Amino acid sequence: MAESQANSETAQKKQGFFGAIIQFIREVFDQLKKVVTPSRKELLNYTLVVLGFVALMMVLVTILDFVFGKLAGFIFAGSPLWPLW
């Protein structure tokens, strides 16, 4: 394990700056070849899951904002907690 790290470090030092950049670009293209595009059904499913999660988070943040706003008004301004509007 330590020998392989030492060999890779010495190989990287031998490459030089531009050699390391070229190697990085090659590795990026190698990784991009592994990318699989989803089917239409999968894409629709993923999109609906994301939109549902975002809607759920919007509702949660809205409720928390309302509750903390009412509490801050009650604590600092003395406004009543009820009625809610």
From TrEMBL:
Listed under GO biological process in this entry are: intracellular protein transmembrane transport; protein secretion; protein targeting; protein transport by the Sec complex
Please indicate which superkingdom the organism of origin belongs to.
Bacteria
Q: Name one GO cellular component term.
A: plasma membrane
Family, according to the entry, reads as follows: Belongs to the SecE/SEC61-gamma family.
Describe its partners and assembly state. Component of the Sec protein translocase complex. Heterotrimer consisting of SecY, SecE and SecG subunits. The heterotrimers can form oligomers, although 1 heterotrimer is thought to be able to translocate proteins. Interacts with the ribosome. Interacts with SecDF, and other proteins may be involved. Interacts with SecA.
Enumerate the InterPro entries for this protein.
Answer: SecE_bac (IPR005807), SecE_sf (IPR038379), Translocase_SecE/Sec61-g (IPR001901)
NCBIfam families, per database record: secE_bact
GO MF terms here are:
protein transmembrane transporter activity
Compartments annotated for it: namely:
Cell membrane; Membrane
User: What is the role of the protein in this entry?
Assistant: Essential subunit of the Sec protein translocation channel SecYEG. Clamps together the 2 halves of SecY. May contact the channel plug during translocation.
Topology relative to the membrane, per the entry?
A: Single-pass membrane protein
Concerning Gene3D superfamilies, the annotation shows:
Preprotein translocase secy subunit
Protein known as: Protein translocase subunit SecE
Pfam family name, one: SecE
Provide the alphabetized UniProt keywords.
Cell membrane, Membrane, Protein transport, Translocation, Transmembrane, Transmembrane helix, Transport
